[in-house]
Amino acid sequence: MSFLSNIKFQYNQKILQDYIKSGNFNDFFNNIEKHRENKKLYTQLLFTLGTDVLKKTDENFFVSKLTWLNSFLEEDLNYLEKFLNFYFQNYKKNFYINSYEEEIVNELNVLQKIKEINFNDFVNFSYLYQYLILQKNDDKDKFLKNCSPYFSSTGQLNFSNISLTRCFLYVLDHPYSVYDRIKKSLDGDQNLARNVFLNLDNQKSFKKVNNVEIENIKQGWHTHTNSWTGSNVLNVHRGKVILKKDIITNPFDTLSSIILHLIQSGVKIELNYDLINNFISNNPTTKNEEQFDISHKEKKFIDQYVGDIVSSYNFDY
Question: Model pTM greater than 0.70?
Answer without folding.
Answer: yes
